[in-house]
Predict the 3D structure of the following.
Amino acid sequence: MVDSSLVLWGQTLVYTLYALAIILLMGWFGLIITKPGKRNRVSPAFFYSFVGFLIVLGVSIHIITYNTIPWASLDLNRDTIKADKTFNITVENHQFYLPSEKLVINCNDKVLFNVTSNDLTYGFGLFRSDNTMVMQMQVVPGHKNDILWQFDKPGTYTIRSTEYSGPKGISMIVKDAVVVLEKDEDI
Amino acid sequence: MSFIHTLIKGEQGLFKSNSLTSMQKITLRFVVVGLLFYGFAVIEGMIMRIYEVQPIPGINTDQFFAILTAHPLVGIFGSTYSIVFGAFLFLVPFLMKKPLWSIKLANWTFLLITFGTLTFWGAGFISHYAPLYTLYWPLPADFSQFSPLGGAIFIIGIALVMVGAVFFVINIFKTIAYTPEGWEKQPSKALLASAIGLSGFKNLFRKNKKEHLVSLPVAAIARGTVDTALNAGIILFTGVLILVYMVGALIGCDLKESAIDALLYKNWFWWGLDLIADGLVLIFVAGTWYLLATLITGKKLFMQNIARAALFLELVVSWTVWSHHLMSDQAQPAILKVVSGEMVTAFELITQGLAFFITLATLWSARPLKMTNELKFLLGGLLGFALAVPAGIVQADLGLNRILHNTQWVVGPHVHVAILVGLAMTLYSAIYILLPILTNGAKLYRARNLPISISGHTLSVVSEWGLLWAWPA
């Protein structure tokens, strides 16, 4: 599965290019409207073409991401996909309770993190050693909070709560709790 | 001439307060207090940013989180509500050429918002009540970390603001519908139907189309006010619900997660809160752009019937988009995530894109235009939303939300660019165009400093954009 850092980088680049384009467009517009022009009328055809463009853009964004971001379909269909490994995690009193000290995973295995809160709304996020985020989900009490994920390369990840639950929430960190190994590699 | 003298008497002594009507006075009060609260929010924001780089002596962790809770509320309710309500309480009667229904009620709105904001801000400052993050009031809440008494005062402050908002709603709709003394009887129901968009909707199925009874900006204000009313109801109810939890905690009976379904509550809360961000803000902003474009150019609005229909569509869209806040909640039904969270939310690209295009086309039709203060700020406001709305559509995506939810992306390129650049510059444009009318011709103080203000807002785009690149580090 494509690493989420690559998706984030691509999305940041696309948005930056868009931001530059729209800033330049508005700069040009601000300049041009202070000068007399020959054609001051905007044709309705141009307007309706723009509306059509917005509709196509609005719909296509989600179709493109659904077909290019692998975890989108994995997430929607997780009830019908058999996980290679399941970890049941509990959260209570601003503490994560893991089934074992280290959650060991083999590369390319589909892993289900099933997190239950016994008191407040928390978050569950996995972070790389450089503190960038791999993924996250909300952990709502009284409901099933599960996420299916596939790691494509070995690494060690830290669990953090990604939802504010008062000042105590900032210390909800379990360092290097998830270890992803090449198949048949020992921890 | 000293600065204090200029502050009281205006530039070159041209501000004559005794010449102002009650309507002008109350509007100016709203604007001044709104700008003061904007200053509050800006200082709070800067304190938090500095603290995140390096803790500041005298500000402990609890104080930091109290600021985190108060900051967006002071900005939205204290500042934006004040400026917007003040401007619209002035504009509706001005555009309809009839007096405001009740100046007294407008004064109550002003007092309730001002003192309500000071109350919840003070409660947070003193008691460090800080359970909120990005405006979400979670339930069940952890009262072991916060003082329930401080929380109760905080909620009372919010409730005062909401009562002020209800008074604003009553005043706006009454002003549209009532018949002033000595006037010919006004068609109240027809005026309201036109303002809300019902008559326009019926026109779609009529052979003989009926004329719109209220102007487009009044229609925009009325439709945004519908969302203001719904939002006030939800926030008031939620405040009472949280108070019940607090009273429970105070008497030693913890209601915990068993009393109310946390996910159902979350849906309810975000439905109500989204009536601000994805409802009244977008509708009010579009209406303000239309008004500013017609006032700046003196021309009719381009495609004004489509613009009117789009405002109605935006109102309906605002009632059905809330699920984009729950894309990372795994128990939220997938159908709601896809239909409400992704598809309906994408409609905002269309409705706001239409408003953007229509405003630009109206300006284009009047070339050449003088680059006045109001035009500069209007273009800045348009740019702000052109940047922030697509950023919102990006995070309302099942795939991308997994890596964007609760990150700087949401707060930076989406929320802050929408508010600091889009909304603030639109409101400044409106203030610059209304100031001579509100002050009977007072002169602008050091207008040559305006480019500094504009470049400040532009820099905020750059800084939020910088965050976008910096946050993975």
